[in-house]
Amino acid sequence: MSVRTAPIAHPVDGREIAVARPKHVWRWVAGIVVLAVVAWLLWEIVANPRLDWSIVGDYLFDKRIIDGIWVTIEISILATVLGLVLGVVLAVMKLAHNPVLRWTATGYIGFFRGTPLLVQLIFWYNLAFLFPILIVKIPFTETGVYWDTNAVMTGFTAAMLGLGLNLAAYFAETVRAGIQAVDPGQSEAAYALGMTPAKRMRVIVLPQALRIIIPPTGNEFISMLKTTSLVYVVAGHDLMTNASQIYKQNNQIIELLIVASVWYMVMTAIATLLQSRLERRYGSDAVRMVRKGGVADRLLRKQTAPTAGVLA
Amino acid sequence: MSERSERLDTSVVIADQVRMGFGDVEVLRGVDLEVDAGEVACIVGPSGSGKSTFLRCINGLETVEQGSLRVLDQQVGFELGNGKYHPWSAKRFATFRTDIGMVFQRFNLFAHQSVIENVMCAQVQVAGRSKKVAHDEAVAQLERVGLSEHAHKKPHQLSGGQQQRVAIARALAMHPKVMLFDEPTSALDPELVDEVLVVMKALAEDGMTMVVVTHEIGFAREVGDTLSMFADGVIIEHGRARDVLDDPQHERTRNFLASVR
């Protein structure tokens, strides 16, 4: 609601009479009360004699913390990529005609959404109890590659697998919704032009589903940045693990949690910024799915260029 | 396949007692129809009479459940081998459909592609043509429908009539042997109908075999060779388009024609 400031003419003599500003007494009261409570809470923390801010400063750029940040980013990116790719596969399986594929995808999604992420992480980390050796070999021969499970399943790989496989289960539903939101007429036209079901999916449906799928992927990644902190139970050497290892030595628990929080907030802020860019690019209706520098892009630019008459 | 089509008689579509339904509802209840090469076969009838469903059977978007439907000398959906008809694979269907162009009521242009990409897409992805060949073909087809200056627009920037003409160009770029039109002007504003009909008429004059489901009686009279009147899943009247329109024999045909005029 806008506030009127322009004077109003008097009905009888037409004098311009000023309009008084509204007072909003209760707005001021509510604002002051909330400010006071928040200020008091902050003061209790900031000025707490048991909290040593110099330690926060000391550790903010500690090598272990900085290393942990990079591992957190690395795990987040790898797990998100794994989750996205597997999520698309699961979504396509869930929409398949083959009932075995459908049930498998449904079972996978049910299992990974139905069990806590923490349990899954610990499970992957302790995979060696079930399978001491990982083998990839040609069936019925001895030719193949063998790994010691404990050597492969480090905190890092367990974290990446656990987070990625878990995200895939959630992401599959997003992708499925995106695929189903594409007008069935698009598929019919693709079939009528002689496309196979797979080609129709890849060339026509998925590129259009992306418009619906991409915005939530930003949210998934942002939430992944923070979910990686769970990795501390399997010692993934991420930000949270390293912070916890420091406070286990010096007992400055709150100080190091503040250090970790500052960095999580910085990462989230940057990711949010990137996400809003991504959404501006893909969220709009006039989205150009043509990759910059891709074949179609070059083709189109050549066309519009005044000198190039034919495609060389 | 080409070997067989050499000795193909002139019929492009031969439907013999074609039946199909959705669940309990029988949509086609014994359709007989022959469409010759170069013929413009118009199909009219009230909504729900099965005319669109029949058209979709011709390129295998719907499956015929009983009777026989032969298109371009192939039993649609089935291959004869070892004394049995074996259902086609998805790939076999795809190959079959490259010879059949289809134009939809709602245009169905690929929304994420520009006009020229729409016309090039199947040429490159399905026919395996090079980008240059596909591009030249697309430009030629867009010229044919009078839209070459819109090549770089997105479908949503075009009017309905323009979108439908792009859809026709997209189908023609695959060099189909027969074109199916499923109420191509029904979703258009009245003032945009003619520009589409003009393109279709030119196509008919070029000798294209066409099966056209339409409510445009004027088009059927002027361009159509034959006309089939669908009602309740069967063809109740069939003959030369002009004959049926000028002197309908069946009472339902008379009533229907009176209602759409």
List the helices and strands and how they pair.
The complex is a heterodimer of chains A (312) and B (261).
Chain A: E1 8-9, E2 16-17, H1 25-46, H2 53-60, H3 63-94, H4 99-114, H5 117-125, E3 133-137, E4 144-148, H6 149-152, H7 155-181, H8 184-192, H9 197-227, H10 239-250, H11 253-282, H12 295-304
Antiparallel strand pairs in A: 1-2, 3-4
Chain B: H1 2-6, E1 11-22, E2 25-36, E3 40-44, H2 51-58, E4 66-71, E5 74-75, E6 78-81, E7 84-87, H3 90-97, E8 100-103, H4 115-125, H5 131-144, H6 160-172, E9 178-182, H7 193-205, E10 209-213, H8 217-223, E11 226-231, E12 234-240, H9 241-246, H10 251-260
Parallel strand pairs in B: 3-10, 3-11, 8-9, 9-10
Antiparallel strand pairs in B: 1-2, 1-4, 4-5, 6-7, 11-12
Helix pairs in contact in B: 4-5, 4-6, 5-6, 6-7
Summarize the structure.
The complex is a heterodimer of chains A (312) and B (261). By secondary structure, chain A is mainly α.
Task: Describe this entry's structure for a reader.
The complex is a heterodimer of chains A (312) and B (261). With 312 residues, chain A is mainly α. Chain A has 2 domains: 1-47; 53-300, MetI-like (MetI-like fold, Orthogonal Bundle). Chain A has 12 helices and 4 strands, in the order ββαααααββααααααα. Chain A has helices at 25-46, 53-60, 63-94, 99-114, 117-125, 149-152, 155-181, 184-192, 197-227, 239-250, 253-282, 295-304; strands at residues 8-9, 16-17, 133-137, 144-148. In chain A, the strands form 2 sheets. A two-stranded antiparallel ribbon of chain A has the order 1-2. In chain A, strands 3-4 form a two-stranded antiparallel sheet. In chain A, a hairpin with a 6-residue loop joins strand 3 (133-137) and strand 4 (144-148). In chain A, helix 3 runs antiparallel to helix 4 (99-114) and helix 5 crosses helix 7 (155-181). The longest helix of chain A is centred in the N-terminal third of the chain and has 32 residues, at 63-94. The radius of gyration of chain A is 28 Å and the shape is flat. Chain A starts with 7 loop residues before the first strand and ends in an 8-residue tail after the last helix. The model of chain A is unreliable at 284-312 (pLDDT under 50). Chain B has 261 residues and is an alpha/beta fold. Helix content of chain B is 36%, strand content 28%. Chain B contains 10 helices and 12 strands. In chain B, the strands form 3 sheets. Chain B has a 6-stranded mixed β-sheet, sandwiched between helices. In chain B, strands 2-1-4-5 form a 4-stranded antiparallel β-sheet, with helices on one face. In chain B, strands 6-7 form a two-stranded antiparallel sheet. In chain B, a hairpin with a 2-residue loop joins strand 1 and strand 2 (25-36). In chain B, helix 4 packs across helix 5 (131-144), helix 4 packs parallel to helix 6 (160-172) and helix 6 (160-172) runs parallel beside helix 7 (193-205). The longest helix of chain B has 14 residues, at 131-144. Chain B starts with a helix and ends with a helix. The model of chain B is unreliable at 1-8 (pLDDT under 50). At the A-B interface, helix 8, helix 9 and helix 12 of A face helix 3, strand 8, helix 4, helix 5 and helix 6 of B. Chain A: One of its GO terms (molecular function) is transmembrane transporter activity. Chain A: Belongs to the binding-protein-dependent transport system permease family.
